[in-house]
## 1
Amino acid sequence: MSAKDVFKDPQTLALVEAACHGDIPKIDALVKQGANVNATGYRDMSVLAWAMACKSYRGTERLLELGANPNFKMKETGDISPTWIAAGSRDPRWLPMMLAHGGYPNITGPGGFRSALSLAIEQNRMQNVQLLLDHGANVNEHDSGGNSAATDAAALAKFDAVEMLLKHGYDYNLQDLTNAVYVEHIPPNDPKHAAWLRVLQILAAKGFHPNVVPHIGGPPPGLAPPSSDGGGHP
């Protein structure tokens, strides 16, 4: 759809087009005349999100400076927001821009699930993960089913991300996380093995050992839970 199809209000359409062209004087003039930087169009599409889709850095940043809300959830477009979109974007300019103008690092996506951290991890945007953490993202954020960025990362076998979250204070239901990591059973010849083992060692140091049925060969050395007599068991 074109901007004309999405934004029926003439003033809003003019603002969107100015933002997409990065025309700062025109953006300023339109806002001074009453254009709303938080106006929406078809399916709750926001002016800010449209400017991002145009890849207009200048226009997007000016909208933010003039009060555009990076956390506005476009409910009819899947409950997504500019900040959440930026967290999963491969473009390194979007997330710093959103966070610098009030972007909420703990924002969630569709249905109130999948945090910005989870999205960034899923999309392999580790720079974004670090940015979110630097801006105070809650590593222990979880949904009603107990799913968190760490358990999502474990399910995706992204153990470097699990390690990063643990080092940033993740401590929610560590037994379940231990089991989730362990059952992935990464063999020694797999490039992910070193990170997998480091995560299990971090968890073991915190007193958490796998209590699920072990794979053939048992837990890695040093990670077996203690037996009743204080020794390890296979």
## 2
Amino acid sequence: MTILRGRRIESSGHRARRGLVVANILGAMLSLLLGVSVLAACAPSQQTTQKPTATAKPTPAPRLVYQADWSHGLSDWMATPGWTVSGGVLVSDTGADRQITSPFRPTTPDYAVEFRVQLISVAQNVGTDFRLSADSTASADGYMALFDHIMLHQCMFACHPHLAVYIEPMVDQDVGTGTVQIHDFEPETHLLTYRVEVRGPLATLVVDGHVSSHARTSRTQQLSAGAIHFDCTGVALRLSDFKVYTL
């Protein structure tokens, strides 16, 4: 009898059975992996939906719609006595209640009226002012940009010219929001640019690019685009560059 020492030698049948078991295990693992892959492929993908970004609409730039041409006289402007034209510029005397009325009326609810004024002289011992105004209508309040107590020298008792924009009629002035703003004003003889902007119920007065006063109506949602007047009393001045813009 031959005795084999060392490593056990398996029979061929045993080796075959073990190989079959290993093959079955590998096959099961492969099937499992394939199943997982198929399920992953069939699962609906979650797409990330980005919300549209809200973009602010650009504010349109003001557009010039009217510019007065006084190079050949007052033309179709309505004027009281006391106005003359010199070199395309209107000149007033120091009389009372001098008024001119623009032939153009704004065609949009939001608009701006711009003009330039240079004081020449001021009457003594009388009321002095100049103003731009728009008439109220049945459906819209008017407004008035007022420059009063005009003088060309500083007073030793600290009295100064004033400026402010008001709602017409004054009873509709919204005083509860603090929008009535009256300020001291020193025009001297400088050529200054004045601008009244109308946006809905709000009127804003701008002098040489600086916001000077606001006024808001408490009655109507829109201020008037009615007849526009320029008045002066007790001051001789030059009026030029009268323009109207849409906003």
## 3
Amino acid sequence: MTLLLADQIDALLPQTQCTQCGYQGCKPYAQAISENKAEINQCPPGGALGIAKLASLLGIDEKPLNPDFGTEHPRKVAFIIEADCIGCTKCLPPCPVDAILGANKHMHTVIADECTGCELCIAPCPVDCIIMADLDNPSAWDQAAADHAKQRYQNKQQRQQKQVEEKAERQKKQKQMLAKLKAKK
């Protein structure tokens, strides 16, 4: 029953995967809420509306957003100041939804329609060329956008897991090859 509840809670979260709640994404936060290890008021992107939805689902009283986790503000998206970007690629790994395109030593860009506004790309940038910009339509983050962001996040997680498995397989084959070479000596 707890897993089902966690899935219901996760479905109500904004899926920005911003980690502001103190968890490594929306799903772990949802799991923590379902296990009474986290409060419903730790998600700044979800804000008051998200808290109201969670309170309704769980049959508990609403509470104000806990300021220890941030403040509610209109959704923004990352924007890279092209003239300042050095192409270091440090912003790529932290983006939970692969909304940043770029290659080593080439200017990067953000796909605004895919950006969740999580701000996780800002801190790793060594030249401070990433800023958060207001959206033309800040109210556009609806359930369809959250579902889309969740799918992109899951796709990235699956891709990264496949890369880990492929690397482990290559290392295993290399060790086997080295063992065969040593055995021939």
